[in-house]
Design a protein that fits this description.
Blueprint (H helix, E strand, L loop, with lengths): L4 H16 L2 H22 L5 E7 L3 E3 L3 E10 L5 E11 L9 E2 L5 E10 L3 E10 L4 E5 L2 E6 L6 E6 L3 E6 L26 E12 L11 H7 L3 E8 L3 E6 L13 H20 L3 E9 L6 E7 L4 H11 L8 H9 L7 E6 L4 H12 L3 E6 L15 E4 L5
Parallel strand pairs: 2-11, 14-15, 14-17, 17-18, 18-19
Antiparallel strand pairs: 1-3, 3-7, 4-6, 4-9, 5-6, 8-11, 9-10, 12-13, 15-16
C-alpha cells in the first residue's frame, strides 16, 4: 500500500520552491522524491522470508486447565524490518492474559503484536490461556503488515496456518453426580453368551466330538487318561449408546440455558469415560451440530483405545443448534443399532414426546435408561416400568 499524498506533497513543494525561488524547499522535495524509490524497493521485500508461528503447550485439555501459548515472528534475511504488526485471529470467548482487539468477524477478536526486527532476528511473545469453557477453538489465520522505514509504503501478507485447541468438557465420577459408583445404569452383564473368551479359562471337561482340537488340555488328558478340553467364560461386548439432547427448553424458540447445557454435556462425557474404563463399547448420538456446520454428531460404539478421545472431541465441539427433536432421532437411529445395546437418553428436559418414544421402544424389547437433569420432573415408576431412570443431583 502506498501513501500517494507524499508524491503530491513533493510536487507542490517543487512548484512552491520554484515560485518563491526557495532552493531549500526544492532540495527538500528532491530529497523526498529520491527517498521514494528506495522506500518502494524496501517495501517490496519487507515481508520476504518473514515467518509467523504459534506453539501451544497442549492441544487437548479439560475445562479448568491452562495452556501456554508462544507466538514467534522471524526475519530470515539481511534487510531489517523497521516495523511489523501482526493481527492474529483469536476466539473471543477464550480467555488469555492480554487484552484482545475487536474484530468485525463474529465471535472473534485479534491478538495484536508489534515489533521491529533486525537482520536474522526473531521476536517471541508468551501468553497463558485459561481454558474455562468447553469448545473446539481455531487460532488463526494471522495478518502481517510491514513497510519501509519512512512509512511511505505498506505491504500485507496473510499467514494461512491455523491451530486447533480442543477443550474437553469436565469429567466427574459417578459419585460426584449422585449416582451409584459401580453400575450407574444397573446390571449390564451379558444374558446370552456370544463367544468364548480364550483369555478367561474356567476349567476342563470331557471331550465331545464337536470340540475343536486346539482346545484340548493335554496335561489334564494325561492325568485322567481321557481327552479333556478347556472351558472358557463366555463374554460379550457391552454396548452403551448415549443419546444427548442439547435442548434445554421444550421449544427451540425459547433459546438455550448455557449452564444447564454444559452440565448435560459434562455428564455425557463422564458417563462415556466410565464406560470406557470398564471396556464397554460406547457410542454417541446428539441432536446438536459440529461448529460451523449443520451436520449432527454421530459416533458408533467401539472399543478402540482412541475411541474415548473421539467421543470427548465431539462433546467439546457440539453446539446448541438443534437439527432434530431428540425423540425423532431416537426413533430413526435405534433401528440401526445392535439389539443388545443399552440406549441411554441424557436430557435436561423430559417431555411427553421423549417418554412416549422410549416406552414404544421398551415394548418392542429394547433396553433403555433415562438420565434426567430436569429438576422440575418427577418420574412415575409405574408408567416407566422397564426403563431404568436416574436423576442427577442438583449440585453436581
Amino acid at each position: 500500500m502506498f501513501n500517494e499524498s507524499w508524491i503530491y506533497i513533493s510536487i507542490v513543494m517543487i512548484l512552491a520552491g520554484a515560485a518563491t525561488q526557495s532552493n531549500a524547499l526544492i532540495a527538500l522535495a528532491t530529497l523526498l522524491l529520491t527517498i521514494i524509490p528506495i522506500a518502494w524497493a524496501w517495501n517490496r521485500v519487507a515481508l520476504w522470508r518473514v515467518s509467523y508461528e504459534r506453539v501451544l503447550s497442549e492441544r487437548r485439555v479439560f475445562v479448568g486447565e491452562t495452556v501456554d501459548l508462544s507466538v514467534r515472528v522471524s526475519n530470515r534475511k539481511i534487510l531489517p524490518l523497521a516495523w511489523i504488526k501482526i493481527d492474529d485471529r483469536f476466539p473471543a470467548r477464550l480467555p488469555i492474559d492480554k487484552p484482545l482487539a475487536p474484530s468485525h468477524i463474529p465471535l472473534s477478536a485479534f491478538l495484536v503484536q508489534r515489533a521491529a526486527l533486525g537482520a536474522f532476528e526473531r521476536a517471541r511473545w508468551n501468553y497463558r490461556i485459561n481454558c474455562d469453557q468447553r469448545g473446539f477453538y481455531t487460532l488463526g489465520p494471522a495478518r502481517l503488515r510491514s513497510g519501509d522505514l519512512f512509512g511511505l509504503f505498506e505491504q500485507e501478507l496473510e499467514s494461512p496456518r491455523t491451530d486447533r485447541l480442543i477443550v474437553y468438557p469436565r469429567v466427574l465420577s459417578m459419585e460426584d453426580w449422585g449416582l451409584p459408583p459401580k453400575e450407574p445404569l444397573g446390571d449390564v452383564k451379558a444374558r446370552t453368551p456370544i463367544f468364548d473368551d480364550a483369555t478367561r479359562p474356567r476349567g476342563v471337561r470331557d471331550y465331545r466330538s464337536d470340540d475343536a482340537p486346539k482346545h484340548i488340555h493335554w496335561r489334564a488328558t494325561a492325568r485322567r487318561g481321557e481327552l479333556q478340553v478347556k472351558v472358557y467364560d463366555p463374554t460379550i461386548t457391552y454396548q452403551w449408546v448415549l443419546f444427548l439432547n442439547v435442548a434445554t427448553f421444550p421449544h427451540a424458540w425459547e433459546g438455550t440455558d448455557p449452564a444447564l447445557l454444559e452440565r448435560t454435556i459434562s455428564f455425557a462425557a463422564s458417563l462415556a469415560n466410565f464406560a470406557t474404563e470398564r471396556k464397554y463399547a460406547v457410542g454417541l448420538i446428539a441432536n446438536g451440530t459440529w461448529p460451523e456446520s449443520d451436520q449432527r454428531l454421530k459416533i458408533l460404539p467401539s472399543r478402540d483405545p482412541n475411541h474415548l478421545r473421539h467421543v470427548l472431541e465431539a462433546l467439546a465441539a457440539v453446539t446448541p443448534f438443534i437439527t432434530t427433536p431428540i425423540e425423532t432421532l431416537l426413533r430413526q437411529e435405534s433401528a440401526g443399532l445392535a439389539w443388545g445395546a443399552t440406549l441411554v437418553m441424557i436430557t435436561s428436559i423430559v417431555t411427553e414426546e421423549i417418554l412416549a418414544e422410549m416406552l414404544r421402544l421398551r415394548r418392542v424389547g429394547r433396553r433403555l435408561a433415562l438420565v434426567s437433569l430436569d429438576e422440575s420432573w418427577t418420574p412415575d415408576e409405574c408408567e416407566l416400568e422397564g426403563i431404568l431412570v436416574r436423576r442427577v443431583k442438583r449440585d453436581a
